[in-house]
Write a structure and sequence with these properties.
- By secondary structure, this protein is α/β, with parallel strands linked by helices.
- The chain folds into 4 domains: 128 residues, Response regulator (Rossmann fold), CATH 3.40.50.2300; 104 residues, 2-Layer Sandwich (Beta-Lactamase), CATH 3.30.450; 158 residues, 2-Layer Sandwich (Alpha-Beta Plaits); 247 residues, TIM Barrel.
- The chain is 46% helix and 23% strand.
- The protein is built from 26 helices and 27 strands.
- The strands form 5 sheets. Strands 18-19-21-22-23-24-25-26 form an 8-stranded mixed β-barrel. Strands 2-1-3-4-5 form a 5-stranded parallel sheet, with helices on both faces.
- α15 links the parallel β16 and β17.
- α12 crosses α13.
- The longest helix is centred in the first third of the chain and has 45 residues.
Length: 699
């Protein structure tokens, strides 16, 4: 037989009677594709062929295998069990039909067959089969879609980075994805069927109530903590959505994320906004908050509060010389020392740079805090095997006299700092109202000073230095003066501290050194008596630049022999890098330049330091010379300095000699050299040249 056409229904007719086969074939062939089998055995083979029959008309009474046996065998075979079978039978006993229906027959057609009945029942069964097949195919597609979606959902759950688990109304976990299990430190199977309360919350009551939303409600974007298997708390952000069916809540789906990293980030942001990264101290933001809180208490209690501001002296020079990393290490060391050593402060904060703030409640607490700070800074700091001394200027502002709010107190305490800097920079000052006016004046003066070098407003005056033994003029000290366009001739005290504070001391100091060396060489070229010219070098200059290289370069450019130059170092130079200073002093001596210690006795010199430093001369500070006429202590100090200089084989010179009695006492103490108004005020270069050309009247 030819294969059926696409869409054509196939009917298998099974009967051992050729007449029945012929009748049914002629009846059905115009409508269907008909196959015939004359025995049960052949029918079983043809039913298994492809395509399978859509309907089988099966004779009940056949030799060898009757219709009942064939039907039983068809139903036992998976490929054939769903083919509908209509029995053909001449039997009319009710028991025969029941037996066939029990075995799975769908209908009976009695013999002899009636065409209309056959066609109707065949069509009915084929339509039923078509409907069943369509339903089966649809169910198969639905099941496939369900399986696909289930697999997809499982893949999503298993691939999701956030943790997801479900709980039933009894609180038992009924599903959990790998991410959730991993975050909680479990394997998924360890949690399935377990109580969420006991596993994730240790029964502390925060879990089920927090996770299981109320009927009809949801828990969105909550924060809490789950307990990991190891007992550690896991901070999480979670949402819980109810699972409902027909209005009945069956449980909840919980999704959560680990927020430890977010919390760390928030903590870092909060710390950065309130604490200084370098020192760990409160910053300006937290200081303002604490100060406002303290002021609120002081207003309520009518109590006093004092704000102490401190600013390191010459710290920029230390940074420039030793490097920012070393400077940062010193700031950290200072912060630690202040934190541990200033117990009376309510708060210690860093404003930035080298500025720190302390405040405390009570009368005169600021003075105690300032003195504690100064005492702490008297000890050196260790930095890479070096001893570094730090000094600071301190200003104090008092509530309510100097300000009603935190900003005003801070501003005025800083104004007092710069007032302290202006008078030497070591000590503390209480704020006075006129300081703000002075601050404006200093700001204006600073702006003028920045242009003074460009406008050639600076000049040098020279004060003679004499030997007492023979009265000879052997040298001079070069002293800077500023011919200000509005203020007139300003002495060094009016602008040198300002230059140091605003960073102009380095270019100014280089100008002084070059101008002094050029002038000394010019006098020699004019045939005048050669004299040693002494140039002051501040600690800022020593810290901010290579003084050895600068001196070598200036001497080379001006042509002055090194033996006609003396550099005067202040004792505050020792508060910078001691080892670097000792090395530089040795190199300057090797260059042929003389070194003197200026203002000796007013600072922090130690005998061991003087022994290591390659000095030529000590200079007795004028504060001791000024008091010789009436202060026995000053006489004793001058005598001790002179004796010390002799023991170290150093020359000694006294500055600021103004009276005959001072001169007599210095002679009596054995002083070798002097300078001061008693002999000559500082002179401009041309006047000093006339002094050299006319000769100095010996005394």
């Amino acid at each position: 037989m030819n294969a059926p056409r696409v869409g054509e229904r196939v009917i298998l007719v099974v009967d051992d009677s050729p007449d029945v086969l012929r009748v049914l074939g002629e009846l059905l062939t115009p409508l269907y594709r008909v196959r015939v089998a004359t025995s049960g055995r052949r029918a079983l083979r043809m039913a298994a062929q492809s395509p399978a029959p859509d309907l089988i008309l099966l004779d009940v009474m056949m030799p060898e295998q009757d219709g009942y046996m064939v039907l039983s065998l068809l139903r036992s075979r998976p490929a054939c069990r769903d083919i509908p079978v209509i029995f053909l039978t001449a039997l009319d006993a009710p028991g025969d039909e029941e037996r066939g229906l029990e075995l799975g027959a769908v209908d009976y057609i009695a013999k002899p067959v009636r065409p209309a009945v056959v066609l109707a029942r065949v069509q009915t069964q084929l339509e039923l089969k078509a409907a069943r097949d369509a339903l089966r195919d649809r169910n198969a597609r639905l099941e496939a879609e369900v399986a696909r979606r289930a697999a997809e959902n499982e893949l999503i759950l298993n691939s999701a980075a956030e943790g997801i688990f479900g709980v039933g109304v009894d609180g038992a976990i009924n599903f959990i994805n790998p991410a959730a299990a991993a975050m909680l430190g479990y394997r998924p199977e360890e949690l399935l069927g377990k109580s969420a309360s006991l596993c994730l919350f240790r029964g502390d009551g925060d879990g089920p109530g927090a996770v299981m939303p109320p009927p009809g409600g949801e828990a969105r974007d909550r924060e809490g903590a789950f307990r990991r298997k190891d007992g550690d708390a896991l901070p999480v952000a979670f949402s819980a959505v109810p699972m409902c069916n027909a209005g009945l809540q069956l449980g909840a789906v919980v999704s959560f994320t680990d927020i430890r990293e977010r919390q760390r980030y928030i903590w870092q942001l909060e710390r950065q906004s309130n604490f200084d990264d370098l020192t760990g101290l409160p910053n300006r933001n937290l200081l303002r908050d604490r100060l406002d809180h303290a002021l609120h208490h002081c207003r309520r209690e009518a109590a006093a509060l004092e704000v102490v501001a401190l600013n390191l002296n010459r710290f920029k020079s230390i940074n420039d010389t030793l490097g920012r990393e070393a400077g940062d290490e010193l700031l950290r060391g200072l912060a630690q020392r202040l934190s541990e050593g200033v117990a009376d402060a309510d708060t210690l904060a860093r404003l930035g740079g080298d500025e720190f703030i302390l405040f405390g409640r009570g009368e005169m607490v600021g003075a105690g805090l300032a003195q504690a700070v100064l005492k702490l800074l008297a000890e050196p700091f260790e930095q890479a095997g070096r001893e570094i001394f730090l000094s600071c200027s301190i200003g104090v502002a008092v509530y309510p006299k100097d300000g009603e709010n935190g900003d005003g107190l801070l501003r005025n305490a800083l104004a007092a700092v710069y007032q302290a800097k202006g008078v030497g920079g070591w000590g503390f000052r209480y704020y006075a109202a006129e300081m703000n006016a002075r601050s404006m004046e200093l700001l204006e003066l600073e702006n003028d000073l920045r242009r003074a070098l460009e406008r050639d407003e600076l000049e040098l005056h020279y004060q003679p230095q004499l030997r007492l033994a023979d009265g000879a003029l052997f040298g001079c000290e070069a002293l800077a003066r500023w011919r200000h366009p509005r203020r007139g001739l300003l002495p060094p005290a009016d602008f040198i501290p300002l230059a140091e504070a605003c960073g102009l001391i380095v270019p100014l100091g280089e100008w002084v050194l070059r101008a002094a060396c050029s002038q000394a060489r010019r006098w020699q070229d004019e045939g005048l008596q050669p004299v040693v010219v002494a140039v002051n070098v501040s600690a800022h200059q020593f810290a901010a630049q290579d003084m050895v290289e600068l001196t070598r370069r200036v001497l080379g450019e001006t042509g002055l022999a090194p033996r006609w130059l003396e550099l005067e170092l202040t004792e505050s130079v020792m508060m910078s890098d001691v080892e670097a200073l000792v090395l530089a002093a040795r190199q300057l001596r090797e260059l042929g330049v003389a070194l003197a210690m200026d203002d000796f006795g007013t600072g922090f010199s130690s005998l061991s330091f003087l022994k290591r430093l390659a000095l030529d001369r000590l200079k007795i500070d004028q504060s001791f010379v000024r008091d010789l006429d009436w202060d026995p202590d000053s006489v004793s100090i001058a005598s001790a300095i002179i004796a010390l200089a002799r023991s170290l084989k150093l020359a000694v010179i006294a500055e600021g000699v103004e009276t005959e009695s001072q001169l007599a006492l210095l002679r009596e103490c054995g002083c070798e050299e002097i300078q001061g108004f008693l002999f000559q005020r500082p002179l401009q270069a041309d006047a000093f040249a006339r002094l050299l050309s006319e000769g100095w009247p010996r005394f």
